[in-house]
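Q: I'm teaching a short session on how sequence maps to structure, and I want students to see two examples side by side rather than one. Could you give me a first protein with its sequence written out and its structure tokens following it? Keep the formatting plain so it prints cleanly on a handout.
A: Of course. Example one:
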Amino acid sequence: MTREQSMNSIQKDMEEFQGQLRRGSIQRAYRTLLSCMMGLRTHFKNKYPDASVSAIYQGVMDMTYFAILTPSLKKRDLKIAIVFNYEAFRFEAWLAGRNRSVSRRYWELLKDRKWPSYRVITPAKGVDSIIECDLTHGFDLSDTNPLTIIIEKGARTFIEDIEAALAKGKTT
């Protein structure tokens, strides 16, 4: 693709984006999604007072997330991110490291374990997760209470599974 073709393509994308914004549904949906994420963050902060809960990262329509750092994960420089993945259009939980070297170290430790419900993610440029867990397949944001229960239950199980695996590995 030439530079001119690329510029035309970007211009067409911007025109499409502007048209969608004029309709207003993108803004309403995005506000609803962010409100849901803020509610989830508050729920986790209140339900797990021993854990640290980060601010919400809104992303660039790739992901929106907040992190949960339980005491045992925090001492290992690990966190669980509660993520809305825009491309997959679902809520997920990710195990992530404080930085790439921490992520690589724990990936090496955990990659060969059997994770029937989770995806082990190979380290690469732009990859933020070590292990991923789907929390929802289809959801309704018109009533977030049932969704919050589903996400909290799935995230709690994920955290417990990760912490159990780390305890067996005797990693600190």
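Q: Perfect. Now a second example for contrast.
A: Example two:
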Amino acid sequence: MAQDDEKTIDQLNEEADIAADYLEGLLDIVDYEGDIEMGVRNNRPTVQIVADDDTDIKHLIGRNGEVVDALQQLTRLAVQQKTGERSHLIVDVDGYLKHKRQRLHDIALDAIDEARETGEPVDLKPMNSFERKIVHDVVREEGLKSRSHGEEPHRYVTVYLKSGSAETTTEDDYFEDDVEA
């Protein structure tokens, strides 16, 4: 399937089902109790692990989301192995991504405020592509410009004023290498 082809809702639901089965198997292996919630959001299959035990949940999130990121990568590979196609599946654990999005939204707004106050570009700390895309979206919504610089894993976002800035960007710059999550 070409990258530009949109998947049907049935295909997305199938990916979520495969992912849920895979994650249930992993939960059984580590003997964690958890419920799996599936859905489709923004044309992407989503699977969330919800558990009653906060201790188990913290282990599934890890420090700075490292474990949930690894779970997502492994689950995407499991889906790809079954379907033969690359998946843009999102795996979340107990709302971690929602909280992460809010923190990134706040970081972006702080950078926007600083750029407006000083008139100077503001560099943010290095982020992964998921994080950078969220920042780019917030910056664009607020009427400023942003651009990614550097190479992984040190790629970061710079926030610029829209007018009077020495460096301007095009819409293509917003998502340069920043669309994969």
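Q: What should students look for in example two?
A: Point them to this: The radius of gyration is 18 Å. Also worth mentioning: The longest strand covers residues 35-41.
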